[in-house]
Amino acid sequence: MHKFILIPDSFKGTMSSSEICAVMEQAIRRHVPAAQVYGVPVADGGEGSVDAFLGAVGGEKVDARVQGPWGEDVDAFYGVLPGGVAVIEMAAAAGLPLVGERRSAEQTTTYGVGQLMRLALERGCKKIIMGLGGSATNDGGCGAAAAMGAVFRDDCGQAFVPVGATLSRIDSIDLSGMPKELAGVEIVAMCDIDNPLCGELGAAHVFGPQKGADPAMVELLDAGLAHMAGIVKKDLGRDILSLHGAGAAGGMGGGMVAYFGAQLQMGIETVLDTVGFDALLDGADMVFSGEGKIDFQSLLGKVVIGVARRTKRAGVPLIAVVGDIGDNIDAAYEAGVSAIFSINRVAVPYQQARTRAKNDLALTMDNLMRFFTRMGL
């Protein structure tokens, strides 16, 4: 029996990973009705990550009531996968959609994210996957740490919950009040950027403006994160100032390492490990992956390349079905991609191509399956 694995990224603004898997599977079954087809939807840690994991391996979506980015009560959720693995989207409690037009990177908090983590602990989860994406915050993860029992004090000894504008007030950090169960929990933060915490490529400068920060506020936020990093090093012995990925999600990347001992990991690596991809490859005839456009950024370790590295080791061919193909991507083949096909069948601009993308994807997959079956696959 033939076996196919489908593991595409979404085509941003066009099709979700789950939709792409469905179209691919339909084309495969049209030509190989009895095939084993395994769909693994992929998300990047932002909105949709919980649903993607649940779609890939099963589990339960748990509703929760927590604090939103402005401290108001909001309806949120997290996922529990088989084996006691919790998946949390920080955007569910601290995301840009929750603030609407009221964007204020200096005042919003990740407190609700910490509440979701605490709920997962109370449920008995032994591993937490945190998706860092789509945040409305710039508090370095202090809010989340406070919700888990960390105590931040100013130079007068007064405890407070820091936000972006008050990070420079932190004089000491005490983690002794955090749950003892946390010591036995593995925490992985999905992080697909390598921005440092501070500086011109840091959280405030790169992402602050989209969260409502003007130039003066960007400088204040940047200085606050640098100050926080200094206190973290002094009190917790962790150096996050030069840590790659620390600037993700308003400094939440650095905060996850500083306060929770998390491992920052590329999103696709987290997905592949969680779904047991290496074992799934056993006996596979073909893997189909893809993304909206494969280009030089893809080569840094996005979905297609991350998958290709695994399939290459296993000796399984990988076909990338993409919206568009950039220049100078020969390294993709060296990484393990067997072939790349664009679904843009009539070579139209993106705004036109997106309206016909689903049908073009179906036709491209149909063409590929016709070829494979004719070759006696």
TrEMBL record:
This is Glycerate kinase. SUPFAM superfamilies: Glycerate kinase I. Keywords: Kinase, Transferase. Belongs to the glycerate kinase type-1 family. Its EC number is 2.7.1.31. It comes from Anaerotruncus colihominis DSM 17241. It is an enzyme of class 2 (transferase). Pfam families: Gly_kinase. GO terms for biological process: organic acid phosphorylation. One of its GO terms (molecular function) is glycerate kinase activity. It comes from the Bacteria.
